[in-house]
Design brief:
Elements (H helix, E strand, L loop, with lengths): L1 E5 L3 H12 L3 E6 L10 E4 L1 H10 L8 E3 L1 E6 L4 E6 H8 L3 E5 H9 L4 E3 L3 E5 L4 E4 L4 E3 L2 E4 L6 H7 L5 E12 L10 E6 L3 E9 L2 E9 L13 H9 L6 H6 L5 E7 L11 E3 L2 H4 L8 H15 L4 H20 L15 H14 L2 H6 L1
Parallel strand pairs: 1-2, 1-12, 2-8, 5-14, 12-18
Antiparallel strand pairs: 3-7, 4-7, 5-6, 9-10, 10-11, 13-16, 13-17, 14-15, 15-16
Helix pairs in contact: 1-4, 1-9, 2-9, 3-11, 9-10
Length: about 375
């Protein structure tokens, strides 16, 4: 089967690799002039590291394996600790935090990607796409994995259905030494109306992020000229290592949170969607890349079968983290975190990983 994949992000690259491994003829077309490596890092839960294993992408040398996920108050008091090794033992694969650059480089190795050739228009019923520059390509299957602004989705659904949630993330890496940089601990520090996250990403890097409420044109928005001093003012009095991270902060990345209602089916005819093109969600549940890998895994297993049935199966699962993330509940966790003992929080986390994963529900 000849497969056209639009987009060389996590979803598109994983789908292309899986379909190639299954013996299909795959072509990937990406709008950017080269591999898109910008962005921070992602947390891959056990279902996703298992999927990487099946795709032949070794994760042992990627990022940093995590053993605990902790929530602190802004004064440094530990509120709750989730034991991530319990899920590793239960599901047979670890939780890994990896820079997005490393992940897409590993997924793209050896794949037939054509850069500078994004999809401008698609004809879903014919699995056909017109590329930048006017060239037209056609396959037996068209996969729209071209992100939130997907041209393939626009041909299927119309305009972008995602809306701003009212929250934004400012994030980046620091290589300055901290107490967490070489640990295996993910830490979220909750304020009254804001959140700081700190996770080691391997190679001496610590990902930091700050989630705050913001709207276009106001403080903390993309064009805020005083963003670094503003972050230091807002978070500078928080527990170590937050002040030290803020002192070394210069390059910051801006990510507004979007949410959307996920429909029961995503495609039409021999055309389907994957990743953010199908289910944009805020990053607060750390599920974007994981759901993209889940899409690719199911598509690889069932290519040539009933696409609509697969979309319905994935929609039932993807809606669960999307709905929770859309409430931005983790950014308001100060009010309830600490009311649950560690053992119960660990069990709840393990159960949610399974509920959020088509792979784990199928394999376990």
């Amino acid at each position: 089967m000849r497969v056209i994949v639009a987009g060389a992000g996590v979803a598109g690259l994983a789908a292309a690799r899986g379909l190639l491994n299954a013996g299909h003829d795959v072509e990937v077309y990406e709008q950017a002039p080269e591999l898109r490596t910008a962005g921070g890092s992602v947390t891959l839960w056990p279902g996703s590291t298992a999927i990487l294993d099946e795709l032949g992408v070794g994760y042992a040398g990627l990022g940093r394996r995590l053993e605990t996920m902790e929530s602190w108050a802004d004064d440094g008091r530990r509120l709750v600790t989730v034991d991530l090794t319990a899920a590793e033992r239960r599901y047979g694969h670890p939780c890994v935090h990896v820079a997005r650059r490393e992940l897409v480089e590993a997924l793209s190795a050896g794949l037939p990607v054509v850069y500078g050739a994004g999809v401008e228009h698609a004809e879903p019923e014919r699995a056909q796409a017109r590329l930048t520059g006017g060239r037209t390509v056609r396959g037996d299957l068209l996969v729209g994995a071209d992100g939130r602004r997907s041209a393939v989705r626009r041909a299927l659904w119309g305009e972008d259905p995602a809306a701003l949630s009212g929250w934004v993330t400012w994030q980046g890496f620091t290589t300055a030494p901290t107490s967490l940089t070489h640990s295996r601990r993910a830490v979220m520090i909750a304020g009254r109306r804001e959140l700081c996250g700190l996770i080691p990403a391997g190679a001496g890097r610590l990902l930091w992020w700050f989630d705050v409420q913001a709207s276009p044109g106001g403080p903390f928005w993309q064009d805020d000229p005083d963003i670094v001093p503003r972050l230091r003012e807002r978070f500078g009095g928080w527990a170590d290592p937050v002040p030290a991270v803020l002192e070394t902060t210069e390059d910051v990345g801006f990510f507004p949170h979007h949410r959307q209602a996920i429909p029961r089916v995503w495609g039409r005819g021999p055309t389907t969607l994957a990743g953010d093109a199908a289910h944009t969600m805020p990053p607060t549940m750390a599920q974007g890349a994981n759901q993209a890998l889940e899409d690719a895994w199911l598509l690889t297993r069932s290519a040539g079968g009933d696409l609509r049935a697969d979309e319905r199966a994935r929609a039932r699962i993807a809606r669960r983290p999307a709905m929770i993330a859309g409430t931005e509940v983790t950014n308001r966790q100060r009010s309830f975190t600490g009311l649950v003992p560690d053992w119960m929080a660990t069990r709840m986390h393990m159960a949610s990983l399974r509920r959020f994963s088509t792979y784990l529900l199928t394999a376990s």
